[in-house]
Design brief:
Radius of gyration: 23 Å
Order of helices and strands: HEEHHEHEEHEHHEHEEHHEHH
Largest sheet: 8 strands, mixed
CATH architecture of the largest domain: Alpha-Beta Complex
Structural class: alpha/beta
Number of helices: 12
Strand content: 15-25%
CATH superfamily of the largest domain: 2-enoyl-CoA Hydratase, Chain A, domain 1
CATH topology of the largest domain: 2-enoyl-CoA Hydratase, Chain A, domain 1
Shape: globular
Number of domains: 2
Helix content: 25-40%
Length: 286
């Protein structure tokens, strides 16, 4: 052993090694770009404490802060035909599904759960943008219908949180067929005298925006969410005009009467309870 190796080994016994910093200790805000403790973001409902930017979150986090503790139960994911068109682009559609399931832990992009919000019985459906951009395929359409049916069984409101890039191109016309199917499910809720409440989150666009996202009895949106049917550049090129800076945001939609209210995530639970009490006074009293 050389003298250099001996010195190095001796130093390793007395000099502490540098402790590795966990990768998930910090979170970079997508709104202001500032670094925030991940724990602080989690405790703040994934809203940046510096700029108030609302980060995208999935079904588990939604359910955790909306439902009364211990009151919720997730509905089983429906079984549908996978890859009915045997679609392939740069990857097989079946492989994309497998990768999304591993990454999110979800069967598909729409998850339902039943429970209570401040004592009020509800069924909540949440779209997960992390699962293939929350795209609407057969599984999403069927899950939406199952959620509506569960609300009818429980005689309670159906609340849907939308977050989607639109229809799932890998399923072609079968994806677009989910738009009228969801519309029929909403009509079933109306026939049963039950409210359908939509909470628009960032982003909601495409076929979802053209379907069940804008068919609610009450439309609520999170602050500064991007809400659109098609892209800003496509519209500007079509009408040959420059659009306002806040175009296709929650605040723009509220100003032009297309939604009912913009509600901060911290106030959303109480606001939903108030809306339910207003729409279902007899059930609230019971």
């Amino acid at each position: 052993m050389s003298w250099l190796s001996s010195v190095r080994n001796a130093l390793s016994l007395v000099v502490p090694t540098k402790k590795e910093t966990p990768d998930n200790l910090w979170h970079k805000c997508k709104g202001c770009g500032q670094m925030v403790f991940a724990k602080e973001m989690e405790e703040n409902l994934h809203v940046c404490p510096k700029c108030d930017h609302h980060e995208r979150i999935g079904p588990r986090d939604r359910f955790a802060y909306l439902f009364d503790e211990g009151s919720s139960a997730e509905l089983p994911a429906p079984k549908v035909a996978e890859d009915p068109l045997k679609f392939r682009d740069s990857k097989k559609y079946a492989d994309r599904l497998k990768a999304a399931r591993v990454a999110t832990g979800e069967a598909d992009a729409f998850v339902n759960a039943r429970g209570r919000i401040m004592g009020h019985k509800v069924v909540i459906g949440v779209q997960d943008f992390a699962f293939m951009g929350g795209s609407m395929g057969q599984a999403v359409g069927e899950a939406f219908i199952r959620g509506a049916q569960a609300a009818i069984e429980d005689k309670c409101p159906f609340i849907v949180f939308t977050a989607s890039g639109g229809a799932r191109m890998q399923e072609g016309i079968l994806s677009l067929m989910q738009m009228p199917r969801a519309t029929v499910a909403i009509q079933m809720l109306h026939d049963a005298g039950l409210p359908y409440i939509v909470v628009l989150t960032d982003p909601t666009s495409g076929g979802v925006m053209a379907a069940y996202a804008m068919l609610g009895d009450v439309h609520i949106a999170e602050p500064k969410a991007t809400l659109a049917f098609t892209g800003r550049r496509v519209i500007e090129n079509t009408i040959r005009e420059k659009l306002p800076d806040d175009f296709q945001t929650s605040e723009y939609y509220l100003e032009h009467g297309m939604i009912d209210m913009v509600v901060h995530r911290k106030a959303l639970r109480e606001k939903l309870a108030t809306v339910i009490e207003y729409l279902c006074p007899e059930r609230a009293a019971a």
